[in-house]
Automatic annotation (TrEMBL):
Residues 28-80 form the Zinc finger CHC2-type domain. SUPFAM superfamilies: Zinc beta-ribbon. GO terms for biological process: DNA replication, synthesis of primer. This is CHC2 zinc finger domain protein. Keywords: Metal-binding, Zinc, Zinc-finger. Coiled coil: none annotated. InterPro entries: DNA_primase_Znf_CHC2, DnaG_primase, Znf_CHC2. Transmembrane segments: none annotated. It holds the Pfam family Zn_ribbon_DnaG. One of its GO terms (molecular function) is zinc ion binding. One of its GO terms (cellular component) is cytoplasm. It comes from the Bacteria. It comes from Ruminococcus albus 8.
Length: 198
């Protein structure tokens, strides 16, 4: 792994952009630092950026180069020091240190994946209840009320509440409702097995 690849793995574009004063809005849309604009048109992805206004684009190293007028290696040095990455740019890379950072990166990725999965479960459960509620609502007063409809109206507010809470809270809060997400997953499976996906 080269020093360039290492820097790119360790620092994502949105984090670097924010730290260097780029104004980042919803959905990681930023006010482009490379042309004058009032509405953000520069999209920041994890590993690159692209401006729909002026077509500026590149990875995190290019971003820092362009922001400060640096060469690639100067940008790498700058990022290394600003983000305290502790990469030794003069020595050949130390395998142990690299492996340790690798593990940290893997761990961070696994955590992200885990959070995405939990959110996905909550969303699927809410969506299912929403479908039940619409599809099985009684059409006439004399209709017998469908069990799925009753179940949905009893649980949908709570499902929405969980989804909202999960969205707003930080990592620690998300860990705290992990058990509840496990229960929701079992509940979701039970619904699908018993009543179908709708
Ligand atoms: Zn631009």
């Amino acid at each position: 792994m080269t020093i360039f690849e290492e820097v790119k793995e360790l620092v994502d574009v949105p984090t670097a952009a924010r730290s260097y004063g780029v104004e980042v809005h919803r959905g990681n849309m930023a006010l482009c630092p490379f042309h004058r604009e009032r509405h953000p048109s520069c999209k920041l992805y994890e590993d690159h950026y692209y401006c729909f206004g002026c077509q500026a684009h590149g990875d995190v190293i290019k971003l820092v180069q362009e922001l400060f007028g640096l060469s690639a290696i100067e940008a790498v040095k700058q990022i290394n020091s600003d983000f305290a990455l502790g990469l030794d740019l003069d020595k050949p890379p130390d395998n142990k240190a690299i492996q340790k950072r690798r593990r940290e990166i893997e761990q961070r990725k696994a955590e992200k994946l885990h959070i995405t999965r939990m959110y996905d479960i909550l969303l699927r459960y809410f969506t299912l209840l929403h479908k039940y509620k619409i599809r099985y609502a009684p059409k006439a007063p004399e209709d017998e009320i469908d069990r799925r409809y009753i179940y949905a109206i009893h649980h949908i507010d709570y499902a929405w509440y969980l989804l909202e809470t999960f969205n707003r809270t930080d990592k620690q809060g998300q860990d705290e409702i992990k058990l509840e997400v496990d229960r929701i997953e079992r509940e979701y499976k039970r619904c699908v097995e018993e009543w179908g996906e709708c």
